[in-house]
Every structure is written in C-alpha cells, then in structure tokens.
C-alpha cells in the first residue's frame, strides 16, 4: 500500500527522535521502518527491498546508540501524548509473554519455558481507549532475564518473597514505568490473574493508581470467616444483562450474565498490612450443556455504588485480550522470534523496533472505524485497484472502512454479518494479493509513478 504523501510516514512518527550519532543512519532507520511496517513476508531478509537494506538494518541495531530503550523512546512519547490529551478513560493493559531465541549463539539470555529454552520474558504495557478499544501504543516494555536456578531447594518462602528478580514484580515495575496519569485524566491499569498479589495491590492502592485485576486467589478476609470468593458468592445478584463470552479458540457465544459487588479488606500474607478494595463478581446463568460458565472476580479501586458504575468497571476487563492480540502480532505477524542477530545488544534493539512495528498491525483494525477518505491513508492507486477488483469500477470516494472491507475480502474474510469486522490477521493477508496487482498496474499505467 502506498502511504499518503501529505502525512508523516510511520517511520517519521515513531523513529524520528532516535539519535544514532550519524545523520545518514538517522534517515535510514526511518526509511527501513517504512519498508518493514505491514510487510507480511515470513523471513526477515524477505521483509526488505534487497540485501543492502537487510545489511543496513543489521548495522543500525549493532550501533551502541541503538539500545532497547532508545529505539522505543519516540514511540513511547507518541503513545503517552495521545493518552494525556484524550478525554476518554485509558486502559493500560499489562501482560508477559516469552520470546524464544533457543538455538542462537547469543550470550546473556535466560531460561524460558521448562528451563531448557533460551530467551527473555517480555512484559508489555499497552495503552488502549477504554470506550472503543482503539490502540494508542506501547506505553512500556520490560525485557526480563530469568536467573538460573530460578529457585533453590534451600530457599524458604520469606526469602523467595523478598527476591528482587521475582517475575511477579514485573507487574509493579510496568506500572511504575508508565507513571501517573496527567491531572484531570484517568488511566486504569488492567491485569490478569498473575497480578493478584498483595505486593502489587498494596502499592497500587497506596499510590492512588486505578486498577482492575482479575482475582486468582480465594484469600482470607479481615472481619469475615468466609474467604473472598466464597464471601462474594453469598451476595445476591444486583444486576443482569446479556453479553458475549469469548472462548480460548476465539469463538464467541451469547451469554446471560448477572453481577454483584462488595467492599472487602484483604490482609497481607503475614498480616502486617491490609488493603481495602471493591470486588465485583460476574457470572453466567442458564449455561448451555457442554459449555463452561463464565465467572469473574474483579478487584478494583474504583468506587462502585450503583449498577451503572459496576457495568462500567466490568466493561474494562473484556478489553484485556487486546494485549494477547498484540503478542500474536509481535510473534506471528512481525516474526520477532525469527530475528538472527548474534549479540544480546543487537537482538534487544531489533526486538524493540519490532515491538513498535507490531502496534501498526493492531491499528489496522482501528482504521475500519474511521470515516475518512481512503486515498488520504493508502493512496489513490491502492484504492483504484482494490475498488475495480471488488466492484468492477473505480470508486475514488471510498472511505477507509470500505477499503478495509475489500482488503479483508482479499484476506479471505467472508463478510457475513456474523463474522464481524476483519481482524488484523485477515487485513494483513490482503496486501499479499493486492501488492502484485498494484505492481502490474504501475508497469502498465501510462501515468506510471505519479501516485
């Protein structure tokens, strides 16, 4: 797809602030980012226009100025600026994924999986608009190297809890790195069950940072003989509504839900401190035979006083799979685990650049909501070719939404009402078929090279 010539390119937006102490290298990384973004080639050499570009990328990530934080710095600033300006609630979704670089001759990687693999734990903090789910960008990323051995046999529970390199601390480190919301704005940190630890809850509550965390542990409570989950299960339903449940396979099904809330006080493991939080229970009623019923326990600092506020808080948690989609885009879409650099520093820099590229894949689905002219985003030639393919005539006034539906059809989206809008993977496959047609159009057109 040909980008609009009037707007700054992807590389200019996200990498123009990277200073590699060489003007040519600074320009080169911008050109290379524009070349890489949205390229669906499976191997890294094939993502570039030619071997010279691939070698140039290798030289850039081996420069001492190209570090994991520095290559992401401009993107991080761009991400946080919109979150500061928007009046909507912003969700910062946190999660960890493993990056597997087993078999590489790279020193300084840590054990992953069952301990036999080599790579990094990558903790990502993705900012999205709570109301729409639109992706704003990667607010922070932490590369974590597991130490060997992770736990020694002689280590007691207290010593394990005090370890500075515990993976459970990544949740707190991620929140600290993102920082506080600007005055008058609301940032809410969304986490899965891995963040359900007292060492995370206490500083979050103490710093006044907002959170929605899915509860994992049926903890004991202060002032109640029942444990947390059992206590909230005894609270009668306070609201009911219909929604959808997303299965692990990606399939969704309609569900009938009920919800209730309560205020609870949770003690620390050694009862030295307590934290008071709101807990919301959401559960499915009339579960179909053969299906596993939905049940969530959500811990939050948000004050829940009525059904409207409960529904608002509950609406935040279904946005959490967006960060799982980001991890899929990072690995499957951008091939971050296929990087072949031979030093830890170069691999880290290349991984940081790839992490920014992965955000662009998620933004594909957000484009479908825009009601702007498609030519202003993808260029006149891409619109002309795709509209002739789809409808038989040139459609110069197509909106972005109409272009992406056509692109989705190229990517094998059936366009049935039940299918919903095309996802990033479907839209990403579309250019693979569209690009050769555009190339043929360029060669055969009397106005070759004018768009």
What report would you give on this structure?
The chain is α+β, with helices and mostly antiparallel strands. Helices cover 39% and strands 20% of the residues. Strands 1, 2, 3, 4, 5, 6, 7, 8, 9 and 10 form a ten-stranded mixed beta sheet that branches. The longest helix is centred in the C-terminal third of the chain and has 24 residues, at 344-367.
Concise summary:
This is Transposase IS4-like domain-containing protein. With 451 residues, this protein is α+β, with helices and mostly antiparallel strands. The chain has 15 helices and ten strands.
Structural features:
20% strand, globular, 451 residues, alpha+beta, disordered C terminus, 39% helix, single chain, 10-stranded mixed sheet
User: Treating each run of at least 4 consecutive H or I residues as one helix, how many helices?
Assistant: 15
How would you spell out the order of helices and strands?
HHHHEEEEHHEHEHEEEEHHHHHHH
Question: What helical percentage do the residues reach?
Answer: 25-40%
Sheet with the most strands?
A: 10 strands, mixed
By helix and strand content, what is the structural category? alpha+beta
Strand count: 10
Domain Transposase IS4-like: 192-354
Organism: Frigoriglobus tundricola
GO molecular function: DNA binding; transposase activity
InterPro entries: RNaseH-like_sf, Tn5_transposase, Tn5p-like, Transposase_11, Transposase_Tn5-like_C
């Amino acid at each position: 797809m040909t980008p609009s010539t009037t707007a700054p390119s992807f590389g200019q937006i996200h990498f123009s602030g990277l200073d590699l102490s060489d003007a040519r290298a600074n320009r080169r990384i911008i050109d290379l980012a524009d070349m890489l973004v949205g390229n669906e080639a499976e191997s890294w050499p094939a993502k570039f226009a030619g071997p010279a570009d691939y070698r140039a990328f290798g030289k850039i990530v081996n420069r001492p100025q190209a570090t994991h934080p520095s290559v992401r710095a401009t993107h991080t600033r761009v991400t946080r600026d919109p979150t500061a300006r928007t009046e909507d609630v912003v969700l910062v979704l946190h999660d960890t994924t493993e990056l597997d670089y087993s078999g590489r001759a790279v020193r300084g990687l840590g054990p992953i999986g069952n301990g036999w693999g080599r790579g990094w734990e990558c903790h990502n903090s993705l900012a999205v608009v709570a109301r729409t789910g639109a992706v704003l960008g990667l607010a922070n990323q932490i590369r974590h190297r597991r130490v060997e051995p992770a736990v020694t046999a002689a280590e007691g529970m207290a010593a394990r809890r005090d370890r500075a390199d515990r993976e459970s601390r990544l949740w707190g480190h991620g929140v600290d790195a993102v920082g506080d919301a600007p005055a008058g704005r609301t940032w809410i940190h969304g986490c899965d069950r891995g963040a359900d630890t007292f060492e995370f809850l206490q500083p979050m509550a103490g710093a006044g940072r907002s959170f929605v965390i899915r509860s994992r542990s049926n903890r004991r409570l202060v002032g109640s003989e029942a444990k947390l989950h059992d206590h909230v299960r005894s609270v009668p339903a306070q609201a009911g509504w219909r929604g959808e449940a997303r299965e692990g396979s990606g399939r969704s099904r309609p569900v009938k839900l009920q919800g209730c809330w309560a205020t609870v006080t949770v003690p620390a493991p050694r009862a030295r401190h307590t934290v008071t939080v709101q807990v919301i229970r959401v559960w499915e009623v009339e579960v179909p035979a053969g299906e596993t019923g939905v049940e969530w326990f959500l811990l939050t600092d948000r004050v829940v006083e009525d059904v409207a506020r409960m529904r608002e808080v509950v609406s935040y948690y279904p946005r959490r799979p967006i960060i799982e989609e980001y991890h899929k885009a990072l690995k499957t879409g951008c091939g971050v685990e296929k990087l072949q650099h031979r030093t830890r520093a170069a691999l880290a820099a290349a991984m940081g650049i790839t992490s920014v590229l992965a955000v662009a894949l998620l933004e594909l689905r957000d484009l479908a909501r825009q009601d702007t002219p498609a030519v202003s985003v993808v260029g006149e030639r891409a619109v002309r070719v795709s509209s002739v393919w789809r409808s038989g005539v040139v459609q110069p006034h197509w909106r972005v939404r109409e272009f992406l539906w056509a692109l989705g059809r190229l990517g094998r989206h059936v366009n049935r009402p039940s299918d919903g809008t095309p996802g990033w993977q479907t839209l990403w496959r579309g250019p693979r078929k569209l690009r050769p047609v555009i190339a043929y159009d360029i060669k055969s057109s009397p106005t070759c090279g004018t768009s």
